[in-house]
Amino acid sequence: MPQQHGQVLTAECVSKLYRRGSEQVAALNDVSLTVNRGEILACVGPSGSGKTTLLNILGCLENPTSGRVKVYEQIIVDEKKRLSEWALTKIRRQVFGYIFQKFYLIPTLTVSENVMLPFVFYRKHDAPADVDSILRFVGIEHRKYHLPVQLSGGEMQRVAIARALVNKPSVLLADEPTGSLDSTRTEEIGELFKQLCRTEGIAIVLVTHNLHFAQIADRIIELRDGKLSRPS
Amino acid sequence: MTIVHIACKNLLRKKVRSLLTMFGIALSAWVLISLFGFNAGYESSLNRDIDSLGYQVLVTAKGCPYEAATLMLKGGTGLRYMPQRIADAIAQESEVEAVTAMLMHTVFDPNKGESGGYSAYLGVDPTTFPKMKPFMEFMHGGWFTQPDALEAVLGYEAAELEQREVGDLLLITEKNIEVKVVGVLKRTGTQDDGTIFLPLRTVQQIFGVTDVLTGIGVKLKHEADITRFEEKMYRLPDVQVVTMSQVKQTIMTLVTTAKVIVLSIALIAVLISMTGVMNTVLMSVMERRQELGILKALGATSLDIFMLIWLETFVLCVLGSCFGAVVAVTTSALTDMLVRNILPYAPRGGLMQISMPLVVMTVGTVTGIGLVSGIYPSWQAGRVRPLDAIRSQEE
Ligand SMILES: Nc1ncnc2c1ncn2[C@@H]1O[C@H](COP(=O)(O)OP(=O)(O)O)[C@@H](O)[C@H]1O
Ligand SMILES: [Mg+2]
Fold first, then answer.
1. Under a CB-based contact definition with an 8 Å cutoff, are residues B199 and B126 in contact?
2. CB pairs under 8 A between A and B
3. What is the pTM for the complete model shown?
4. A49 lines ligand 1 (CB under 6 A)
5. CA A71 to CA A120: how far, in whole Å?
6. Which CATH superfamily is domain A35-63+91-230 in?
7. What is the pLDDT of residues A102-142, one digit of tens each?
8. ipTM value of the model?
């Protein structure tokens, strides 16, 4: 395995059970994987196979029913302990950038305000310069003062990406980031992701239906009924 | 950009809802400020009314109802007579600085109003009465020329009501006697404005009630002991004594009942508007669960979210109660008019006295209560888990 010393995320024997009425559904079943610095990992699989669940657990947004999750060397959750909400928030701020399938821009805030959002909570004051350079990086600077409703799907996606990048995360988690984009836009986003890995050393985990888009990844894993059917 | 910025933009999103909620808060601030403004204004106006009588003690004939003094203030009817010599006797007391004898007489005037009404004439002593009320000023003319002249002095409003000026004649209906208006007083903001003054002896002669009085106003010396004087007065036969502080208390007791009712209404208004605040904020939290979850994923702590929602409540409450305060101040004249109609006794002069500290305190209190009712929704918001947002995209 390449760059074994640079493991950013580690999942060991992670399972997630959901209760649906009286029966239990195993959204994830004994999944183990690692994500290394500066690599793109694509996760594919049919709908309902547990991709989103995996992403949420890797991103410390959700706890697994069993198993262990580590971010760098820090144990987020295992059989014995679980980090506090505050510690989790700190990790989310420092390590992760999230891109959600439906962008989830705040409709009342302008493009640059949306991108600035993480700063509001970190209480950093050098925000505007960073925001401008990131907006330029994703090529949306000219839309800075527009509201989300005034943007096209592709533009919103770029804003969502800019927002995920503004805190300089070391891992970018993207759930179906090209779900609503046409093929040219999809390719542009793919290029952007590759550039991020090369220049910033960011690790990217992306979930996608689009097998063609998945080709930008260094590794592809496939989930089926909560199990890894094609371990990397 | 700060959390305040985000909170304000959120409130602007549902303008009508925010406005309605603010309106509710404004309403309770308005009611509270008006109520306490009335509280302060009524008492000081009443004090002024009583001070403008010029005397601290009113001696009336025994058997007059206890509220006689109230009637007196109102220019009322049904008073009993006492012999005139009592006035001289009282003047001899060591505590007394001055006395003025008064005789009130009312006459039914069938031409007054729609179904007739009473005209009241107050006979006053031309030598002592003006001295007791040195603050009375004339717009035109002056006091009576003779102690038994057929002359009248009209209060400002009485002159307007009767439509008489100095030099005009005024008909005393029942007796078919005309008196000449020799003076019209300036507006005093007291009961005197509505009074028709005649010389004491003239009233006695016209109505054939010689040597009697209905009231004796007694002005005491500064150092006098009112209670001791009162006791002395009770030793006199056929009289009773009403001190103006008693009158004030009686009136205040009557008004307290009204105040309690209004206060309960005010409390209900506050309660309702606070439920409104809670409802609005809770609703907007429920609608925005996803968004709040996203904010958490973007690094907001539970406390950040709590503060965000709480700030929204705060802005609503501050704006609402300030608006209510402005309304209360600008409509205080109207409120005055309305309140005047429902009160057992309304003194002349402003009933509403809205001061800056009162406004600030009410705005503070309403905002405080609003913030308390915002705690629960804000806490609910703080509990939203980031996952809720991501999960609901599946739907
Ligand atoms: N909160 C939940 N409660 C109950 N079942 C859930 C919940 N979230 C996901 N599941 C179930 O877990 C399985 C995996 O879901 P998910 O990870 O969203 O799949 P994917 O993203 O690959 O479509 C699905 O069967 C889904 O219905
Ligand atoms: Mg999914």
1. yes
2. 76
3. 0.73
4. yes
5. 24
6. P-loop containing nucleotide triphosphate hydrolases (3.40.50.300)
7. 888 999 999 999 998 888 887 655 556 678 888 988 888 99
8. 0.86
